[in-house]
Amino acid sequence: MGDFPPTPYFIGLNAPVGTELALEGLPVEGTLPPEVRGAFFRAVPDPAFAPKFADDHTLSGDGMISRVRFNADGTADYAIRFVETARHQAEKAAGRARFGRYRNPFTDDPDMAGVDRTVANTTPVWHAGRLLMTKEDGRPYRIDPHTLDTLGSFDFDGLLKSETMTAHVRIDPDSGDLYFYGYEADGLASTKVAYARVGADGALKSEQWFDAPYCAMMHDFTISRNWALFPVYPTTAELERMKAGGEHWHHEQGLESWLGVMPRDGDVKDIKWFQGPKGVYCYHMMNAWEDAEGLLHFDQCLSSSNAFAFIREPAGLFLQPWEITGGLTRWTVDPRGPAGPVTETVIGPPGDFPIIPAKSQGRPYKTGWMLTMNPDRRGPPVMGGPVLGMFDMLVRLDGMDTASPQITQALPMEPGWCYNEPVHVASATPGHDGWLVTMVDHQIGEDAFEHFAWVIDAGNLGAGPVATVQIPTRLRPQVHGWWVPQAQLDAVRAGVTA
């Protein structure tokens, strides 16, 4: 695969793999719950060629769509394929990397100008019978969920005007409508944000544009029953810096954050900007919800600075991991009152990858799960992922609809083990909290790892996995995943859903 630089982004668990394969009939240890029949899709960045610049990092990797399928006979299948983006095809044709620094086209080979450079490596999104591989710097690529073939770049039948679509979407549990946005919607370093709604039938119903307070990396957002929330944190872009060959993103520690709030199905002209603290950053939000008094609560995994060293350090922010503080944090605003500062409350531990049941999206909710670091860990965490440290404890929080949620359950890992982001699978049993499906990695040597899919009872974390599947091949850490029930996959095969 070429000579990759020996940096933490390309060694150990982060070592490139780049292998397409399909494995069928993998044995399952334990008992698969009846609801866990379907496909766990995962987005895996994996560079096909050594980068042009030695200081490149994980998030530049070519997108691979991975699928763990749980079968009716109690076995599992595993498959992984490259997303055949225009970028990947151009590099395959040349047999080398042709695109330069992360999200900076001015550092590409000159003849690559105008080629779609997204790697589609962040989140598999399932809606209205379509599987999309997304990354926020471009439009998504559509994937056949059965064959994993790439069907091409997707723009909602020519209706989407934004040049970008976020890697994170929100689906209303009642209407089935999908909400998304794209920042830098009309080009590099732009303040333009496109806000869109897709009906349950998969058709784009609306697209509205507004200006953010400044051009920022807007990785995630949320909706409540009545509102859409757009957080803006001070990781910023400058066009002249990119033209000079610099990094797309710098984090500005002295700049304020903002929370834009607008009626969810209303007009962007009614957006209000509430001011947050300086220098903070959040990649992922757990939920947003309204209480009985109409106050809007926004629950997020907030840090005192950007968690990615490759974004902080070009801006002169050289911080050790333990110098970055934070936790699950709630910002509260009155969306019907005048804009002002947010009210901030820390409600949970530091960590990331928050999870809620799909039915709780945008609603008052009682329970959530997230990944964190085991405070009793013996030794360093497994090195891997874009932050260069993998999470080793899964926790459950209850009382999320109160002022003081509490950790009620935990599943810590033994040394050398770590989690990737879980997905939630609903239970058919009334009162049961469902299941969490996750990939876990186990380091068994300096550069040796084994990998498993775990199924965990979401209401009994301490019992450990109820079913495990070993994946007998080398894996790279995922970014995000999505669960699709078998009935929905079968409906698409039968032509029931578009």
Automatic annotation (TrEMBL):
Family note: Belongs to the carotenoid oxygenase family.
Alphabetic keyword roster: Dioxygenase, Iron, Metal-binding, Oxidoreductase
PANTHER family: BETA-CAROTENE DIOXYGENASE (PTHR10543), CAROTENOID 9,10(9',10')-CLEAVAGE DIOXYGENASE 1 (PTHR10543:SF89)
Assigned EC number: 1.13.11.-
A GO MF label: dioxygenase activity
Keyword Iron listed: yes
Coiled-coil region: none
Swiss-Prot/TrEMBL cofactor(s): Fe(2+)
Record's keyword annotation contains Iron: yes
Domain of life: Bacteria
Pfam families registered for this protein in UniProt: RPE65
CC cofactor note: Binds 1 Fe(2+) ion per subunit.
Protein name: Dioxygenase
